[in-house]
Design brief:
- The structure is a single chain.
- The chain is globular and about 60 Å long.
- It has a ten-stranded mixed beta sheet with strand order 1-3-2-4-5-10-9-8-6-7.
- The protein is built from ten helices and ten strands.
- Helix 1 packs across helix 10.
- It folds into two domains: about 240 residues, 3-Layer(aba) Sandwich (Rossmann fold), CATH 3.40.50.880; about 60 residues, no CATH class.
- By secondary structure, the chain is of the alpha/beta class.
Length: about 325
């Protein structure tokens, strides 16, 4: 179904499509990949009742940037325009943390303003990873906890509540996670959050809270592509080899096949014994990518389909068909 990326929003919500904003706060190196991931996921999800989605991309102005200014100026709308609009849905991504406490991040003021705006101007909003941690801290004072090591890999999660957003999901699903912090389940439930999926190993995965708008939270990353964890693992190895981190990164759990894991273990042995940046050339990218599986993508599409149906059901009129204009865009789908 059509997903139209709008670079020049009019400031009003059309009645002929589901209007969604994406506040993309990912660092420069992951900015365009994140655009692509959410466009592809929403395309896979928007396959009901001739549903059509119009996306507008935003970014917090305080997130440190270096070399993507031209891209942002061409393909992103100013956050100032967001305050003048009402959207059906909003998706807010995480960002790379730079301080021990979220409320010390340079973008904290802008992030909390988006949260307050979303409650009064959307039907529902989705908060991903660090954005989820920031939202529960601002809304209910729930602080995240630092993990002993990175929670990294693909984890099996159980569906633990009946909710419209989980309609049709199997009793057990898989989901990628990549984070250094965790939210305590007991504090979430005590403050009225409803846990939808959780893992015995990874902890809480998806959860919701109905406020004036339905707030949806993911500690995992349903939007990830097959090779996202692979690229992140390679990046972290490079940081170790350049002495930018002290410890060699743990291999993502439940992700690589046995042959690839064996090759990567040999690379780790070399790197720990005699680290130098040239070793990164031995990273088996081609071998790893050939064997990668994406068991979470069907779950992700179904979850987002249910979310789009929730947004659609709240609109006053039936959503008609509009032309597929995505092919004419030069952003996000590249």
């Amino acid at each position: 179904m059509p997903v139209y990326v709008d670079h020049n929003p009019s400031g009003t919500t059309p009645i002929d499509c589901i209007e969604i904003g994406v506040v993309n706060n990912m660092p420069d190196g992951a900015l365009q990949a994140t655009e692509r991931q959410f466009v592809k996921l929403l395309e896979a999800a928007a396959d009901f009742d001739n549903a059509n989605v119009r996306l507008t991309f935003y970014s917090l102005p305080d997130v440190p940037r270096s070399n993507v200014g031209r891209h942002l100026s061409r393909f992103y709308s100013s956050l100032d325009h967001l305050w003048e609009r009402r959207l059906d849905g909003l998706i807010v991504t995480g960002a790379e943390p730079r301080t021990p406490s979220l409320n010390q991040e340079c973008y904290w003021g802008s992030m909390t303003k988006v949260m307050d705006w979303a409650e009064h101007n959307t039907t529902s909003s989705i908060w991903s990873c660090l954005a989820a941690h920031a939202a529960v801290l601002h809304l209910d004072g729930i602080g995240r906890r630092r993990l002993a090591d990175k929670r990294f890999g693909v984890f099996e999660c159980a569906r633990v509540a009946d909710h419209a957003l989980g309609a049709g999901l199997p009793s057990r699903v898989t989901m990628p996670h990549s984070r250094w912090n965790d939210l305590p389940e007991s504090e979430l439930t005590a403050r009225g959050y409803r846990i939808l999926t959780r893992s015995d190993i990874a902890g809480v995965d998806a959860f919701v809270k109905q406020r004036k708008s339905l707030f949806v939270f993911f500690q995992g990353h349903p939007e990830y592509e097959a090779n996202t964890l692979l690229l992140e693992y390679r990046r972290d190895i490079g940081r170790f080899l350049r002495r930018e981190r002290e410890t060699y990164p743990e291999m993502p759990k439940g992700y690589f096949d046995a042959d690839t894991s064996g090759t990567l273990a040999l690379l780790q042995e070399k790197a720990v014994t005699a680290p130098h940046e040239q070793l990164l050339a031995e990273f088996p990218s081609a071998q790893a990518e050939q064997a990668l599986q994406t068991p979470w993508q069907s779950t992700a599409a179904l979850f987002y389909r249910n979310w789009l149906q929730h947004l659609s059901s709240k609109k006053e009129t039936q959503v008609p068909v509009i032309p597929n204009l995505l092919a004419d865009q030069t952003t996000a789908a590249h």
